[in-house]
Design brief:
Strand content: under 5%
Structural class: mainly alpha
Low-confidence stretches: 1-10, 428-441
Shape: globular
Oligomer: single chain
Mean pLDDT: 82
Order of helices and strands: HHHHHHHHHHHHHHHHH
């Protein structure tokens, strides 16, 4: 084996280690995110804590508001304490918060637990995306992010089975106790997850960076200038300088609609399918099918985005999502409905992820965490609005309009990301290297 081949193999081993550990962390993120929607039909039917559809929508929004806070602060905190430490803190927080939900004796305490869990969930995703982007092999950022996000939907599948197997015999609290178990993963992250090489070099921790690079025979990144508070604000302001302000705004608006869809459907899919006349067991099965579709979609969209461009794929995916979500408002034979749920899962979840991929690809390494974090954070306003909107429609007896409202959000995201794709295609490139990067994606 030549020395260059050996170096490539060792670099691949490091990338696989980072991606594997981040995948497991995001799996637990998905479990905690989807578990509320999976147990919600049971909570409503048993009127636990006197819960009603509008209160259930508020509870869903508490978690997504926490995710808004976590996502907005993730990039800045990661740039200060490191992505590894922030990931560990996020996993610890949402696991302990699930314990609060499990022992809660009132709607207020339960809501506090969901809000704290949301902060951890919101901080983890953009941090994990930035981490795997740092270690992704050249030209494979989008597919790497797609692989990472399959874990989120694997967590959604797990949440449906946890609800099906545990809630009836042991009660809804048992489902949230399962969500405490990721605490056992924290020591694994502490021991095995390497810190970002670019972060170590930027912080002057050259001995750690050199030891890690030597262990896996990878090159150290170039030394970057030390960031000050002004530099961190400058990273945010860079998103608006020149012609970037409009591109940034388009990504934020597309992310708003995308996350309204993702979290609105994640919270209300089982309940809305119940209002369409399906049995609870079938409604939970739809959660499994929906997330299997999400896994397939991540792999297909990631590979397609690496070839044709993430914004173009996102626009097409959002259009197909809108059609699929709208069809769910029509009561169809079980087999047809299952197929539509699967295809909707394929397109809905990966469309949003391709927005993150686009922002990550277009960003420089030292600005990536800020760009992805703020795009995710601005989109979280849609994530807060989606669960609330579903609850209000159900409370008003207009559950049939739930899927239609979510479909309209998909149409709006298609328009915004489509305009962003056209602007990006027409935008002159500043350097040959940048031209190659955009052309490759």
């Amino acid at each position: 084996m030549s020395s260059s081949t050996a170096l490539s193999a060792r670099g691949s081993k490091l990338a696989q280690l980072v991606i594997g550990l981040c995948w497991l962390a995001v799996l637990f993120d998905g479990l905690d995110m989807f578990i509320y929607g999976s147990v919600l039909p049971h909570l409503l039917e048993t009127k636990t804590f006197g819960i009603t559809p509008d209160k259930a929508g508020d509870l869903g929004s508490y978690a997504t508001f926490g995710m808004l806070v976590g996502a907005l602060t993730a990039g800045t905190i990661a740039d200060r304490i490191g992505r590894k430490q922030l990931m560990i803190a996020c996993v610890t927080l949402f696991s302990l918060a699930s314990g609060i939900c499990a022992i809660s004796g009132s709607l207020t305490v339960f809501g506090l637990g969901r809000t704290l869990a949301g902060i951890g969930l919101g901080g983890l995703l953009p941090t994990a995306i930035s981490m795997v982007s740092d270690y992704a092999r050249g030209g494979r950022i989008a597919i790497t992010i797609g692989v990472l996000m399959t874990a989120h939907h694997a967590g959604g599948i797990l949440s449906a089975y946890v609800a099906k197997w545990l809630v009836d015999p042991y009660g809804w609290r048992s489902a949230f106790w399962v969500c405490v178990l990721p605490l056992l993963f924290v020591p694994v992250l502490l021991k095995l997850l390497p810190e970002s090489l670019s972060f170590l070099v930027a912080k002057g921790r050259t001995e750690e960076a050199t030891a890690l690079a030597d262990r896996y025979e990878v090159e150290l990144p170039a030394v970057a200038a030390k960031k000050t508070t002004a530099d961190r604000w400058d990273a945010l302001l860079n998103l608006f300088r020149g012609g970037e302000w409009l591109q940034t705004l388009l990504y934020w608006l597309a992310s708003f609609g995308g996350l309204l869809l993702v979290y609105g459907v994640a919270t209300w899919l089982p309940t809305l399918m119940r209002t369409e006349g399906y049995e609870l067991a079938n409604a939970l099965t739809f959660v499994v099918v929906f997330n299997i579709g999400g896994i397939v979609g991540m792999l297909v969209a990631g590979r397609s985005a690496d070839r044709f461009g993430a914004p173009r794929i996102a626009a097409i995916w959002f259009a197909l999502t809108a059609a699929g979500v709208y069809l769910l408002s029509v009561h169809m034979p079980m087999g047809v409905t299952t197929l539509v749920v699967f295809l909707t899962g394929v397109f809905l979840n990966s469309a949003q992820t391709m927005i993150y991929a686009t922002v990550s690809i277009r960003s420089t390494p030292d600005n990536r965490a800020t760009a992805v974090g703020w795009t995710s954070g601005m989109g979280r306003f849609g994530a807060v609005f989606g669960p609330w909107l579903g609850g209000q429609l159900l409370a008003a007896g207009n559950g049939d309009w739930g899927f239609t409202a979510f479909a309209l959000a998909g149409v709006s995201s298609m328009v915004f990301i489509g305009i962003a794709a056209l602007r990006s295609a027409r935008q002159p490139q500043a350097s040959n290297d940048q031209e190659k990067l955009v052309a490759a994606h």
